[in-house]
Amino acid sequence: MKKTLLLCAMTEEIEIIKKSLNFELDSDYSDLPWPVYKEPELCIYAAVTGIGKVNAAACSSVLIKLIKPEQVIGIGVAGAVAPELKIGDVVISNSAVQYDMNATAFGYRLGEVPRMNTLEFKADSILYTAASKVAESMDLEAKVYVGQIMSGDCFVSGNMGAEIYQNFGGLCVDMESAAWAQVAHIFELPWVILRSMSDQADGTASVDFNEFLPRAVKNLSHLVEELLKSV
After folding, report:
1. Residues 19, 48, 60: CA angle, nearest 5 degrees
2. How many domains, in total, are found in the chain?
3. Which terminus of the chain has fewer Cβ atoms in its 10 Å neighbourhood, N or C?
């Protein structure tokens, strides 16, 4: 069983999984500013990183150094920007990009982190293929898609979602995935991220988020539980 680091941004995104897989607080990391949980039988460590790219990068970097996982899995909710996505649908990442990274004045492509020689960070093909197969074997009350996740330090609403979709063509937006992906890339660790749609990133996004967050978390939890058992 590979040692896995499971990351999410908010406690609501891990509560169902934490109960069903018997996670307990890990006292070895009680001095850290983030809660760290452990499921010893499956060799899974889980942490709530906090919202936004800086929180996501800070927490994941420290835990990768301390725990030394063999793979990283990110989970949580996101805003749908691709027209085919509906609330409750699940996106499995094959890549992640920072839509608000802009060094185009120096000749870089929009979204490209300077001097990292890549526009998007690629998810591990074995992990996202495994996640897809697990999804196919389950009777989920949602459609499951594989594609790019786009991250930035902004809750996307109004016309912004359509603009991001036009620029990058990814499926959904959030505030942490690309940071987790970049950190995993730096540490040369395989990673994948699964996001359930809690809102459609348009003029109704904030209303959708509050109403549909529990539904989105429930849809995602069953898939993540089965994936964790298989990888």
Report:
1. 130
2. 1
3. N
Flag whether the pTM goes above 0.90.
Answer: yes
Q: Which residues 6+ apart lie within 8 Å of 217 measured at CB?
A: 12, 13, 15, 16, 77, 196, 198
**Cβ-proximal residues to 52 (8 Å cutoff; 6+ apart), any chain:** 9, 153, 175, 176
Q: Which of 13, 112, 124, 208 is catalytic?
A: 13
| Across 169-182, average pLDDT | 97
What is the C-alpha to C-alpha distance for residues 149 and 90, in angstroms, rounded to an integer?
Answer: 11
Give the CATH number for residue 24: 3.40.50.1580
Q: Is the pLDDT of residue 102 over 90?
A: yes
Q: Which of 33, 29, 76 is nearest to 58 (CA)?
A: 33
Q: Is 199 a catalytic residue?
A: yes
- Taking Cα atoms as reference points, which of 160, 169, 147, 157 lies closest to residue 198? 157
**Active-site hit among 26, 89, 199, 208:** 199
Which residue range(s) make up the domain with 168? Answer: 4-230
